[in-house]
C-alpha cells in the first residue's frame, strides 16, 4: 500500500472498523503510546503527531530505537480530522508504513483509547503468527 498524496480528502465520516484482533495482522505496526503533540498544518499538507511509545507489539519495519519504552515516534496524519488524537492521552495505534518508511495513520487506522487491560490481549496477539505474511 502506498501513502495517499498530501491533501487527500478525508472520508465523510471518521470511523474505525473491526476490533483489536481483526486489525492486528492487517496493520504494519501496533503500539501503545501517549500523544506528546499534534500539529495539523495547512489544509494541503499532512499533519503530524509525536507519540511517546509505551509498548511496541508489532514494528513492521518501523525504525524504533531500543528500548522502545519512552522512545518518541513521529506519525504522519494524512487527514486533518482523523484519527482524532488529544495531547496527553494514551492510545492503541495501528497504522501503516508510508512510501518513505515513516509511520502513517490514515483516516481508517484503528486507533482506540488505551486501557491497561488491553496490554495482555495485545501481548497474546503479538505472539501469534499472522496468516499470509512472511
Automatic annotation (TrEMBL):
GO terms for cellular component: extracellular region. The gene is Pcolce. Gene3D superfamilies: 2.40.50.120. The lineage of its organism: Eukaryota, Metazoa, Chordata, Craniata, Vertebrata. Its main location: secreted. Residues 10-130 form the NTR domain. It comes from Daphoenositta chrysoptera. It is found in: Secreted. Keywords: Disulfide bond, Secreted. It comes from the Eukaryota. This is PCOC1 endopeptidase. InterPro entries: Netrin_domain, Netrin_module_non-TIMP, TIMP-like_OB-fold.
Amino acid at each position: 500500500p502506498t501513502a495517499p498524496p498530501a491533501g487527500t480528502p478525508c472520508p465523510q465520516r471518521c470511523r474505525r472498523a473491526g476490533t483489536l484482533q481483526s486489525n492486528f495482522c492487517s496493520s504494519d505496526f501496533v503500539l501503545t503510546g501517549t500523544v506528546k503533540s499534534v500539529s495539523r498544518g495547512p489544509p494541503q499538507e499532512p499533519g503530524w503527531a509525536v507519540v511517546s511509545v509505551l509498548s511496541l507489539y508489532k514494528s513492521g519495519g518501523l525504525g524504533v530505537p531500543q528500548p522502545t519504552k519512552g522512545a518518541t515516534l513521529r506519525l504522519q496524519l494524512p487527514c486533518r480530522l482523523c484519527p482524532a488524537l488529544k495531547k496527553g492521552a494514551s492510545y492503541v495505534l495501528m497504522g501503516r508504513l508510508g512510501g518513505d518508511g515513516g509511520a502513517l495513520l490514515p483516516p481508517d487506522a484503528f486507533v482506540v483509547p488505551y486501557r491497561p487491560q488491553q496490554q495482555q490481549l495485545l501481548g497474546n496477539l503479538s505472539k501469534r503468527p499472522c496468516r499470509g505474511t512472511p
